[in-house]
UniProtKB/TrEMBL annotation:
Pfam families: Por_Secre_tail (PF18962)
Residue span, Secretion system C-terminal sorting domain: 43-118
InterPro entries registered for this protein in UniProt: Secre_tail
Taxonomic lineage: Bacteria, Pseudomonadati, Bacteroidota, Cytophagia, Cytophagales
Protein name: T9SS type A sorting domain-containing protein
Organism: Spirosoma rhododendri
Amino acid sequence: MTDAGDGAACDHGDWAGARLTKTGSSRIAATVQPEAGTFTAELYPNPAHETLHLRYWAETPGDLSLQLLSESGRAVRQQVQAVTTGENLISLPVQDLSRGFYVLSLIQGQQRVTRKVILSE
């Protein structure tokens, strides 16, 4: 991030290849297609209320293991999702879970990524 004279909080990063997508609410998200060799997952909306959406880019087809962990480390939601090479869209219902902070763990093959999740009212 650079400061172009309009404050340090403004993002002047490289947005080449970005596209705007409507997320089903009044929010708009910018996404960037990842480079080959990266394990990329994007969550929205975050904070979530009823459904958490995951945009996941897979290098190879196979099974993606998803595990939602509470603050105490207890698995509150687990599922295995078949994914294809490229972009995959996955929805996780969360309306029945307590509001608070969680960690979503994603595992495909030897690759693992975690993302912080907030469930709100």
